[in-house]
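Exercise 7 asks you to align residues with tokens for two separate proteins.
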Amino acid sequence: MDTIADFLVRIKNAIGVRKETVDVPHSKVKEELAKILAAEGFISKYEAFARMNKKFLRLGLKYAPDKKGVIAGMRRVSTPGRRIYVSAGRVPRVQSGFGLAIISTSKGLMTDRKARQNKVGGEVLCYVW
């Protein structure tokens, strides 16, 4: 099972029914994804908690004044069956720079902008806009 795709789908579904928070199973990669989404302003907060001896992440979702989600869309790019890697010079731009690509590099997870600044490439995990 693709846990990152599950993470993205849970967020999209929660935004679709206008939930305030969504709980997802915890992993280090998902926590880093949540940290990036919070830093870029796509979610309001995230916190790790335990329930019945299992760790979860609780993400606070953000909505615009017209009650549309701040996250308009998310797409998984690299899957377990098809890995997509880019070099430092070919890091993609999402929605002409209004969205972001999250890239797994040798220096950890980072946005497309930071990857271009640091001149590193890696595996393109997902697009968020």
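Second protein for Exercise 7:
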Amino acid sequence: MNKVLPGRYTADIEGDFVVFLIGMRINQYWALHKWGPVAMAMGPMLQSLEKDPASGFLGAENFFNLRVSCSLQYWRSFEDLEHFSRDSGKSHRAAWQRFNKAVGNNGSVGIWHETYKVKASSYECVYGNMPLFGLAKASKRVAADGKWAKARSRISRGEAKVEKVA
């Protein structure tokens, strides 16, 4: 079990980054032979990425319920993510080909992803009494106090201060 860090903290990451959500949905529970291999494909991909700092992969959190799985991933750039997804020497390409051959459009398993490019200093997050998690785990954890205490200051960390003139 991960050690709980008492108090509040936030994440600090330099430059732009990408948030990538990817997952699957079991549409036919009885089709274990279809969705089982899809469900088992993500773990090895993430393990290989964690061992390759040059890949641009920063970290991930994984979530599951009875029907849907989701991997919340952080990447240094969209180009790094795209390179991983298209490179025939990487594990994603082979998994994608296996999925298309075994499942294709038969409806037994749904797959999805969403990609968000986040501009430098235009994000906000806070964690309270949590183990190292999410973006703070994938980047740098800093105390959410002082200049980082309020959501408004965290979300506008890169904006120039504009004085209101009466």
